[in-house]
Amino acid sequence: MTVAGTSGVRRRSGRNTLLGWSFLLPNFLGFAVLTMVPVVLLFYYAFTTWDIFGGAEWTGLDNARQLVHDAGFWTAMRNTLYYTAFHIPLTLVVSLGLALLLNRRLRGVAFFRTVAFFPYIASIVAVAQVWNMLFSPGYGPIDAVLRAVGVDNPPGWTTSADWSMPAVILVGTWREMGYFMLIFLAGLQTVPGELYEAARVDGAGAWQRLRAVTLPGLRPTMFFVVVLLTVNSFKVLDLILVMTNGGPGQSTLVLAQYVYRKGFEENQFGYASAVSMVLFLLCFLVTVVQFVVNRRREA
Amino acid sequence: MKRSTAAVLGAATALALALTGCSSGDDSGGDGTDTLTLAGWSLATTPEFKALADGFHAAHPDITVELKEYDPKNYDTQMIADLAAGKAPDIYVQKTLKNFYTYQNGKQLLDVSDVAAGLGPDTNGLASYQVEGKTYAIPYRQDSWVIYYNKALFDQARVKYPDGSWTWDDYAAAGRRLTAGLETAGSQALGVYQHVWQSTLQGFALAQTPGADLSSGDFGYLKPYYTRAVDLQKAGAQVSLGDATTNNLTYQAQFGKQRAAMMTMGTWYIATLLSQQKSGDADRFEWGIAPAPQRDKSTTGTSATPVTFADPTGMGINPKINKDKIETAKKFLAYAGSADAAKALAGIGITPANTDAAADTIFAVPGVPTDAVSKFAFTKHETRPENPVGKYTAPLQNILNDLHTAVMSGSTDIDTAIAEAQDRARNEVLNK
What we know:
The structure holds two protein chains of two kinds.
Chain A: H1 2-45, E1 48-49, E2 57-58, H2 62-68, H3 71-101, H4 109-121, H5 124-135, H6 141-148, H7 164-189, H8 193-201, H9 206-217, H10 219-234, H11 238-243, H12 255-265, H13 269-298
Antiparallel strand pairs in A: 1-2
Helix pairs in contact in A: 1-13, 3-7, 3-10, 3-12, 4-7, 7-10, 8-9, 10-13, 12-13
Chain B: H1 3-22, E1 35-41, H2 48-59, E2 64-70, H3 75-85, E3 91-94, H4 100-105, H5 113-117, E4 130-131, E5 134-135, E6 138-142, E7 145-150, H6 151-157, H7 168-184, E8 190-193, H8 199-208, H9 223-234, H10 241-246, H11 251-256, E9 260-266, H12 268-279, E10 287-291, E11 307-309, E12 312-317, H13 326-336, H14 339-346, H15 355-363, H16 372-379, E13 382-384, H17 393-408, H18 414-430
Parallel strand pairs in B: 1-2, 8-9, 11-13
Antiparallel strand pairs in B: 3-12, 4-5, 6-12, 7-9, 7-10
Helix pairs in contact in B: 2-14, 6-7, 7-9, 8-9, 14-15, 17-18
């Protein structure tokens, strides 16, 4: 009886393992073949010169040395940091504000939540194209309104080297705010209602309740959102590619597009891999710092 | 469902996905020596590939040419990936001359010097595919940039048609007069449309300026061309680059819908305009072509040869082709560069590399302008390449595209932009 029981448990355990693997395998195979292997290979190609045909030639630190003196790379780096520095706080504030606003029992709240989330699921090409038309200096409604209210020289938005990055940041924020609003909304459900009641009893105003109850209660959510936003900002590509293609000039050229240019337009896959490695290390380092800071705060 | 059944199903799904993902399904066509595979793009709207395949099959009924379609916007990326994976067709088109170096230097093209030797002396664009005395692709079409003009709008603005004597200054002056004249006549059309591509200025500047050399990293030759274009834009005689890009304007709509009286464009637009006027996508109006404006008077007039630009379009052979098919593939290339193919292409409005052999055919196509200036513009010109073949062409063109958008958007003045581009060319490309 005992022996039969043990073998039954083993069989069940074996079946469970098999079942687990069977569900994991399709996704894992895809991940391994299409993501993991290329990423691992990238670290090798970063030290080679390779034009995709034939073998890659090992060049040691040549790509790294070239990067240091590559003005285009540094422009892309500065633009990426510019985008990140403004996109993260702006999206945080807007998405949290939306979440707080739509966390109340309002008539039609589901409709407004859907409206706020809609840009995230809309086609990026369509979004970029429509915003480009809105921003058009000659025919766009945004500058038309600005002129109507007395602004003599409205911004050139995506057609001006000074305004193209702010325009892209605005659209990036508009696009992502709904997604992060949803995450914040989920986070807000985890903050105990009793804490708000206690704060009210203690005479705390709305601002104090936000600072003393809501924000501390949202810390894990906030951490997740900041990490996600950071990585998204560092690797921004699609929006910029469609809206400005990195221009005018190099005013919106970001690291991800620089990788694309070097690799797929100029066929310097070794050098493009070196730039990708920098982008990867940048994301990795910033995320590690965020983890460490978060852990210290929690401790 | 029992767990064991679920497990089996899951495992089967995984296996199926893995096999599907890793299968090497060869879709490059049959391996029989009587079948060739040829790469093309937008087959439904680009009939030249089918015209060549059908024409060759008619001459060689025992050989079939199968077309493999690629995405026109990502043609080179997809082709490079297919070549690297060993899945590319037997014959593939050099869609842009800019990437010829990558294919040739990467040993992805067979030597077809013997085919080139058999071509007539009238074949344009052959030199672009020759490296160290060997030929690696055979041009089958060679467009060249000309002026397209709308006769009705010129008449409305009371401006004389271009007659082949125009320099760029004449072109700009006519653009202003047209804009003013059209406004007076109550039309909203502008004098000029300049499309958003860098080639609309840089192609002419490189081709027409004596001593201009892309790979020298000295881009001073661009200045007069940009100064004139920016002035035209400021004068309101042409749509600004910003409005053209933000509103995704197409040159086909700008000229075809009579929003501009003239524009410079490649001769490939002849076929498009004819077909759009037929389908209703373009208005029906009388139009003509004239030689591209010239840098100075020395190359104007019908007794001179105007200098213009455009890259040839050629075909090469994939070195991984079945060895038994190489001779057949060479036969196809010889046909693509022949006078017969030139006539077949001209019949559908395409400008073949062997232009002289096909001039009569193209002017017989209904709707093609047959006035003396149009005929002169189509048949007589010195067409220089937009993208001289070389290791640095692609990265230098990227730098010059940044210059183009910076200057035409009004973000940077031309002197500063040229200085920046020259610095970048030295640091990022030439001296690396």
